[in-house]
Structure formats: structure tokens, C-alpha cells
Design brief:
About 30% of the residues lie in helices and about 15% in strands. It is α+β, with helices and mostly antiparallel strands. The chain folds into 2 domains: about 250 residues, no CATH class; about 90 residues, no CATH class. Strands 2-1-6-4 form a 4-stranded mixed β-sheet. The protein has a two-stranded antiparallel sheet with strand order 3-5. A two-stranded antiparallel sheet has the order 7-8. This is HNH nuclease domain-containing protein.
């Protein structure tokens, strides 16, 4: 008789009970701008996993285009550049390869180049979002909590991941990300609950701007792999009208498990923050449009009217360009971008030089520094300030220099009673006036402040490399 066992069978791959309603191979739907040549007019290219054959929910696609077109909710999708509206309902699935987004009366409508340039439409959400908000967010308003107590507030309100219903390894997921706090304040997003908070900007850490997500889902949420949008539900079902909508065509497991699956009810977040999150995830899809070699008509926060910018200026609004300038203390306004005709000059001004690094000498033990190197040493290590010389220095400057030198000398005597450092500097001053023996090279470069490589590594390195 076999011994009893407590082992259970291994898990099968996770799946959803209604996986057949989701496309196994999503198609990419191109949403074009009718105001530009066909080679340069793809406004957005969104993955479509709706329906078994693949496609894109009509209203979700239309609102995504309207967001980047500066909240033009009157815009519509058409089959071609001529502009006849589609004969399709808002909840139909777009199954064709491409569509055109039109704004009535404005063939070359301006676009907003990035989320940080986008103005939130207070009191003017699209109708489908307003209806979903009325149905979803009445359930339970969590009390306003301090940021340090946000985890507790969500644990009490949500209790589990709002996507998977898992209770363990949940994390706090902000809808408007904390790194967008400047945008949050500039668009008065905290004014929704300003009366209940000490600071308007404190609402970014309010429970209404956050939900619990399982740790892995939180990570993919911050990677913009999905958003939450309103879509129709089966009649009579008490489900939350906000469903998961996948934006990453390669996320096969996420698509199979969560695409078009409603969030867990009750949902204690405010719909304005859900909509801001939707816009935040849509704007990166606009970046290919901005990189094309054609001028674009843009709408930015620093200008009330649309402006036309060169391809080089348009590319400055992409995330890659922002990352390259993110450390710069000198930011230029968007109006300055429009006025400056030399993009190369602008990038030079925006870029911050890297901090100086300690040099590592790559010197050969078979040769000595050149005479030019010796002269350079004297010039670079002079005690005179680089911007003052001779008559330019005032008496007060000389006085200040004397005090500094006296203090420095006093500190050196205290920390180096044997005068080893002074002896080394005297040797260095003498060494630069003559050729050095092979045995003196390491001492020379180390006295200069370099880290010297081992001899075995130096055979192929030039003796005069001084970067």
C-alpha cells in the first residue's frame, strides 16, 4: 500500500473563463491625421485586442485621439481623409487597418505634444466617462488620509487587488503618478478635495488617487501596459463599468487574463484621476508622430494659440529628449522653443555638462611626459584664479588669497608634520623640467592625482594620453 501523501497536483497555466472574447493575435490600428501627407500622418498606432478577430473599441480609440487633439470631444473617426463619419456605434469594434480622426472645420488641427503640456478638462469629461463615473464611484468614499497612512486607507477600503482580487503582495498604485506632481498642481487636480486637505497638492497622495494592485500588476501598470476605461457591460450585471484595456501587444498573459475584465467593485477612486491616467498612458504613442521630418502644428501651455514647430523642435517633446535634459538646472520655456531658430544651439544650452571625474592615466612605463605636457601642468596648476590675472585682481582679492593660502598652509602643517606632501610637490615641480626615468613614471602620475593602471595593462597605451 503506497504511503499517504499531502501533495496536490501542480497548477495549470492561469487563464480566464471567457478567454475566447479576446484576440489571440491583436492587430495594430492606425489612427491618422488628415492634415498631413500620408507618409507622415500616423497620429497614433494602438494595439487592438477587442473581439476574437482583433480590433479596437470605437469610443476608446476616438477619445484617445481627442485627448492628443486638445480635448476635442466633437472629433470623429472616418474611413478616409475625406471626412465622412463612420457608420458605427461607439461600442462597435474597429476592424479595419486604418482610420482618420477629424475635427469639424479644422483640417490641420493642432495636437498637444506631451502629457505635461496637456490641460485637464475640468467639468468636461467625455460623455461616456461621465456616465461610467456616475455608476462606479458612488459606492464608498474613503476618508482623506495623510501620505504616511495611505497604505492603511487602501487596505481598509479595497482589501484586495482591484484587478486580480488577490489579497496578498498588494501595493499602492497611484493613478496620477507622483512624478507628475508638478502637472497635478498646475492643473489644480487637488482642488477636487482642497477643502478636506491641508494643501491642494496633498491630494496626489489621497486615497481617491490610488488603488491596491498586486505587486506584479503594479509594475506593469507603471510601465503603461494597460489602462482603465469605460466599456459596456452585460445587462443587469452589477459590475464596475471600468475595465482593463491592454496597450502592450506583446503582453500575452495580461491580455488573456485581464483585457476587458472589469475592476473589482466597489471602486473608491475618482473618475477624473482615472481619465488623467488614461491620457498619461496615451501620449507616449504620439512620439512617433513628433519624430517625423515635417513641421507640426502644436498647442503648448506657454502659448494660448497653436504654433508651428520644426521637426527638431517637435522631437524635444519626446521622453528621450526630456531624459537627456532632465538634470539641467536651466530650463527654457516652450515659447523660447518656438522663437529660437537654431535647435542645435538650444540643445547645447539645455544640456548640463557632466561633473568632473578623477582622471585615470593610461601611461606607458617606457616613455616620459612631453615638454608640452610639462608646460600644460604649470599652466593648469597655477594658484591664480583662471578669470583673474595681473592688474585685473583687486587688493581685496589679493588679501583674500593670502588669507586662504595661510590657512591652507597651516592645515597642511597640522595634517602632514613630516612635510611629505611638500617634498612630493617639490619633486614634481623639478620632475616636469626634465625627461623622466622609467622608474619615476608611476610616482609622477600619482603625484599628479591620477590612478595608474598596472604595468601589465599599459604596454599598448600611449604615454601622452591626458584627457
Amino acid at each position: 500500500m503506497p504511503p499517504p501523501t499531502v501533495a496536490r497536483p501542480p497548477h495549470a497555466p492561469p487563464t480566464h473563463c471567457d478567454v475566447d472574447r479576446v484576440a489571440q493575435r491583436p492587430r495594430t490600428v492606425l489612427l491618422r491625421h488628415p492634415g498631413y501627407p500620408s507618409a507622415h500622418n500616423i497620429l497614433l498606432a494602438l494595439p487592438g485586442a477587442d473581439g476574437p478577430a482583433g480590433g479596437l473599441h470605437h469610443e476608446t480609440a476616438r477619445i484617445a485621439c481627442a485627448v492628443v487633439a486638445a480635448n476635442r470631444w466633437d472629433g470623429f473617426l472616418a474611413a478616409d481623409a475625406a471626412g465622412a463619419p463612420l457608420d458605427a456605434g461607439p461600442d462597435d469594434i474597429l476592424a479595419a487597418r486604418e482610420y482618420y480622426f477629424h475635427v469639424p472645420g479644422v483640417p490641420q488641427y493642432p495636437v498637444v505634444p506631451s502629457f505635461r503640456e496637456w490641460r485637464f478638462p475640468h467639468g468636461r469629461l467625455p460623455a461616456v466617462w461621465q456616465a461610467a463615473a456616475a455608476a462606479a464611484c458612488e459606492a464608498r468614499a474613503a476618508p482623506v488620509r495623510a501620505a504616511s497612512d495611505l497604505s492603511t486607507a487602501l487596505a481598509l477600503r479595497d482589501g484586495s487587488c482591484r484587478m486580480s482580487a488577490c489579497e496578498e503582495t498588494c501595493r499602492v498604485a497611484h493613478l496620477v503618478p507622483r512624478q507628475e506632481e508638478a502637472w497635478f498642481c498646475a492643473n489644480a487636480m487637488g482642488s477636487l478635495y482642497a477643502a478636506q486637505t491641508r494643501r491642494v497638492d496633498a491630494a496626489i497622495d489621497d486615497a481617491r488617487n490610488a488603488m491596491l494592485l498586486r505587486a506584479d500588476l503594479h509594475l506593469t501598470f507603471d510601465q503603461m501596459q494597460f489602462v482603465f476605461v469605460p466599456k459596456p457591460l452585460p445587462p443587469g450585471e452589477p459590475w464596475c463599468p471600468f475595465v482593463v484595456h491592454l496597450l502592450d501587444p506583446l503582453a500575452r498573459e495580461l491580455r488573456r487574463l485581464y483585457h476587458n475584465v472589469p475592476l473589482q467593485a466597489p471602486l473608491g477612486v475618482t473618475p477624473e484621476y482615472l481619465f488623467a491616467r488614461f491620457a498619461w498612458a496615451v501620449f507616449p504613442f504620439l512620439e512617433d508622430f513628433l519624430r517625423h521630418p515635417v513641421a507640426r502644428k502644436l498647442l503648448v501651455t506657454s502659448d494660448p494659440d497653436p504654433i508651428t514647430l520644426s521637426p527638431q523642435k517637435c522631437a524635444l517633446f519626446t521622453r528621450q529628449a526630456r531624459r537627456s535634459r532632465s538634470a539641467s538646472p536651466k530650463k527654457r520655456g516652450r515659447s523660447a522653443v518656438a522663437e529660437d531658430d537654431d535647435p542645435q544651439e538650444e540643445e547645447t544650452e539645455d544640456a548640463e555638462p557632466l561633473p568632473p571625474r578623477r582622471k585615470k592615466a593610461r601611461c606607458s612605463p617606457r616613455a616620459s611626459p612631453s615638454a608640452a605636457s610639462a608646460a600644460k601642468l604649470h599652466n593648469n596648476e597655477s594658484n591664480d584664479p583662471p578669470h583673474l590675472s595681473g592688474s585685473q585682481a583687486t587688493a581685496s582679492d589679493d588679501e583674500f588669497d593670502s588669507i586662504c593660502k595661510a590657512h591652507l598652509e597651516q592645515e597642511r602643517q597640522r595634517s602632514d608634520p613630516s612635510s611629505a606632501w611638500k617634498a612630493e610637490q617639490d619633486w614634481l615641480a623639478e620632475a616636469v623640467t626634465r625627461p623622466l626615468a622609467q622608474s619615476e613614471l608611476r610616482r609622477y602620475w600619482e603625484a599628479r592625482g591620477y590612478d595608474v593602471l598596472e604595468e601589465a595593462d599599459l604596454d599598448h597605451v600611449s604615454p601622452h594620453a591626458e584627457s
